[in-house]
From TrEMBL:
InterPro entries in alphabetical order: OMP_Chaperone_SurA, PPIase_dom_sf, PPIase_PpiC, PPIase_PpiC_CS, Trigger_fact/SurA_dom_sf
Record-annotated membrane-spanning stretches: none
Keyword Signal attached: yes
Signal sequence, renumbered to the chain: 1-21
Enzyme Commission no: 5.2.1.8
Protein's organism: Aquirufa nivalisilvae
Record has Ribosomal protein as a keyword: no
Molecular function (Gene Ontology), one example: peptidyl-prolyl cis-trans isomerase activity
Lineage: Bacteria, Pseudomonadati, Bacteroidota, Cytophagia, Cytophagales
Keywords: Isomerase, Signal
PROSITE patterns: PPIC_PPIASE_1, PPIC_PPIASE_2
Name of the protein: Peptidylprolyl isomerase
Amino acid sequence: MKLNRWIFGGVMLMLSWATFAQEASKGTLLDKIIVKVDNHYILKSEVEQQYQQYLSSGQANTPTRCQLLEGLVINKLMLAKAEIDSVIVEDKRVEMELNSRMDQMETQYGSTKNIVEAFGKSIVNLKDDLRTSLKEQLTGRKMQDKITGDVKITPKEVAAFFAAIPTDSLPYLPSEVEVGHIVRLAQPNKNQKEELISKLLDYRKRIEKGESFEELAKLYSEDLGSGKRGGDLGFSKRGQMVAPFEAAALKLKPGVMSDVVESEFGFHLIQLLEIRGQEYHARHILLRPDYQKLDLTEPTKFLDSIRVLIQRDSIKFDRAAREFSEDKPTQDAGGMLIDPGTRTTRMPFDSGMEPGLYFSLDSMKVGTISTPIPYRTEDGRSAVRVLYFKAKHPPHFANLKDDYQKIAAIALTRKKNQAVEKWFMKAKDDVFIFIDDEFKDCNLLTGSVTGE
């Protein structure tokens, strides 16, 4: 078994978003069963589908069919062992994840109508099709966490791992940049606020007169995720929601509605449904201001003044970001943007970068701060930001000094893969495994997977 490749990922237990969508679009494939692991099975078409996805992605070092089948067998063995070891994922957790992924699909396709047209199935039927596979994914993830949760990597191990890589196999990394920003949100004016509050108070009166909170949330709430569920947010742990929302919700008795509550997301009408220990169950109707109509004058003036202070060295950029930025994900990090793939501040400076950011940096010099630039947040809010071009790193072959975090992540993945291999060789004897003769030469159960 050879999972220890020079890669940035581990054993694949979760379907990618693209695969998830493809699973939704296809029916049950009645083709050849090539592996059985207790009550779980693998179809030949699953291996071929994954193989073709790798080929079409253009990635280097495409795994062989045997290597892909190896990963699928490990996944199924984890599911079988999870049943034996009573590793359980609650249905509530599955439903939350399923709703989250359906929300992602709606964002991708633009509307539920477009999803239905694309897949030829109702939303209810799509969710029914995906529920079982999603539960398997979450169970596999939980089982993998159980196997590898205690695996850690030391600096000495990272250095040894890097030293063992042949010089001609070191990856060549593209130009990278380190960038920070300070964001200020445009705020609704008095008239816009009063209009939203008036609408929510009207909804409250209608509910008090007998109309359904759930139906009004479906019709009017601008929280697209919960709105489709009648405003239902499910159970939330204390500290999970933004402070104004949680404070208002926890003051209520079950069944009672709040006054209008303002938070960073907009204006809420909240109804508490249930309190269970440290969790509470609420629903809401959310209205947001029309962000297209918000005036950017004030946040622009504010950031221009902050920019002058930084240029005069009256305040350091990181301190200004912590004190004044309204972008929560970067505020505590002194405004620095984080690459989602490596979780470091060094981001590839190429066409994959957000276009607005790329073209702004392309006209800036390292060490400078931009003038205020209009900016749209991930949740669609109008804002203004200034950019700080902290550093630019030229293309280079990977090395420990500049790329320690990347290399450490790869070394940790390798060590976790070794833990999975060791677990597999022991656990395979605890379950029934059948492998079709067509794939016997893969040597899946011997610890030495072949090329094909």
